[in-house]
Amino acid sequence: MKKIIILCVVFLIFLGLSGCEKSVTPPDDGFVVPDSAETGDEPDIEPEQGIVYRNEKLGFELTFPESWLGWYVINEMDENFIEVAFYGKSKTSTVEFFDKFDIRGRHMFFVGNETFVDEPFLDSVEEIGKVGAVQFYYGTRTDCAVCVLSDVETFLEDEKEIALAKADLEKAMQMLDHVNDILKTFKAIK
Fold first, then answer.
1. What are the strands of the beta sheet with 51-55, ordered from one edge?
2. What is the pLDDT of residues 99-147, one digit of tens each?
3. What range does the domain containing 24 cover?
4. Could you tell me if 152 and 92 are in contact, meaning their C-beta atoms sit under 8 angstroms apart?
5. Which of these, 38, 45, 85, 132, has the minimum number of CB atoms within 10 Å of its CB?
6. What's the number of domains the chain is made of?
């Protein structure tokens, strides 16, 4: 049964890829994928040196390290929250499907308003700031979405894809170390 579920997940993962754009304003399709170009892995983020994501609908911005460039996507889930997802070089790391949303990448964290806190898929939730009178939160899913990259030998046979997925896992784990620095850059724009 586990192999059938894994095969279904793998099949769905291979269905989608997206283009790249260094835009800080979300496009209409609900996805933001910055340009691919990797630089150093400095965890301290200065707005002048980072990649600023600005969400006019929710009224906030976040700054990401330059080292994330080309390695993440922002999924605008609905009017209450966004998801920041790892978007690596392997097909395994590029897409994931759920009943409610078509999302790209492997989940890293969410940022959302008070309504978002009631979502049943959340594991840890922390306050990160306010936009006007509305409190915003950081949260993660109840599972480890990037962890699928560590077990690719069980459902993949392509050695090149396995190698890419393992390299992606290493990069994703490095990026997860920067999440707290990114959350500190939360800034209301309304």
1. 51-55, 60-64, 187-188
2. 445 568 888 999 999 888 877 777 788 999 999 999 999 988 766 777 7
3. 2-188
4. yes
5. 132
6. 1
User: Looking at beta carbons, which pairs linking 45-49 to residues 24 or more positions away fall under 8 Å?
Assistant: 45/178, 45/181, 45/182, 45/184, 45/185, 47/185
What's the rounded Cα separation, in Å, for the pair 144 and 19?
25
Dist. CA 17–CA 52, nearest whole Å: 23
* Cβ-contact 98, 110 below 8 angstroms: no
| pLDDT, tens digit (0-9, with 9 covering 90-100), for 66-92 | 999 999 999 888 889 999 999 999 888
- Please tell me the distance from the alpha carbon of residue 79 to that of residue 123, in angstroms, as a whole number: 20
DSSP of 79-130? TTEEEEEE--SSGGGTEEE-SS-EEESEEEEEEEEGGGGG-TTEEEEEEEEE
- SS3 of residue 160 by DSSP: helix
- Residue 69 to residues 12, 113, 141, Cα–Cα distance (Å): 25, 26, 23
Residue 132: count other Cβ atoms within 10 Å of its Cβ: 8
